Amino acid sequence: MFESLKKLFRKTSEEASSGTLRRDELPSRVREMLLENDVAFDVAEDISENFSRYLQKVKRRTPAEEVKEALRYAMKDILDRNNSDIDILNPGKKPFVILLIGINGTGKTTTVAKLAYFLKENGKRVVVAASDTFRAGAIEQLSVLCENIGVPIIKHTAGSDPASVAFDAIEHANARKLDYVLIDSAGRMQTNKNLLDEMKKMKRVAKPDLTILILDSMVGQDAVFQAETFLKEVAFDGVILTKLDTDAKGGAIISIASLLKKPVLYVGVGQEKGDLKKFDTSYFLDRIFG
Ligand SMILES: Nc1nc2c(ncn2[C@@H]2O[C@H](COP(=O)(O)OP(=O)(O)O)[C@@H](O)[C@H]2O)c(=O)[nH]1
Ligand SMILES: [Mg+2]
Known about the structure:
This protein is an alpha/beta fold. The protein has helices at residues 3-18, 26-36, 41-57, 63-79, 108-121, 136-149, 162-176, 193-206, 222-233, 251-259, 281-289, and strands at 96-101, 126-129, 153-154, 180-183, 210-216, 238-242, 264-268, 276-278.
């Protein structure tokens, strides 16, 4: 995770330490590094200005430590911009209905299962709705995942109405006084009108309490564009960024945390059921600065 960024940051500290780079050259160096790692331009600029300010303030034993600390502070401010007050574990409503949306392959189905597992591990009772009825494979995939984690699933046959699957899952939850309904959905492009209408119907029928956009961190800073385009059509409350474990660059998480006016709630850090982490700035800074 973030190997490339980590390496570049370390190199900068070393160069500051050996005098290869003058102190006043450091901020533009940082900006360059961030751009190389697919961080959005405005964000790279903000971080480097922020870094420059901190660099004048922090006092440490060595120049290398000062650079590292200043960078850490500069990044922290940016990552903390849209901190969330959404408390998924204490939603104050039962069942709490969560809908996951996003384009194909971003990790919706996997994340439904990870989130169900996370809630179950926290003593909550969950039912999952297999509302990606577009492909039979998606229903099968979610069934297997749910069986593995011991969470009930409501499914209809492929091709049936996704909103009615969600409706049945909510009925199921009401009858058994379950805590959560998690709704999977078919991947859709912002441009596919049929699928967008289907999503609007889902919103009307299931009335989700929380809608989460799933974004793949491998698309880098384009994640911001993807999220903004989605937002024009379908309202969502926060995002989950997946595949951070395979992301050497960090462009998506840094750009999204800074530019999107919606919080990053969780991040996906692998393919196993336990690989969902609450988004926490220090966790990431520790991974980057070790
Ligand atoms: N390495 C890694 N792979 C992931 C993560 N989340 C999802 N995937 C993989 O991404 C692929 C697509 O996931 P899927 O849930 O089917 O995407 P969907 O089309 O949005 O439902 C699968 O192979 C998942 O195992 C993650 O956090 N890390
Ligand atoms: Mg899926």
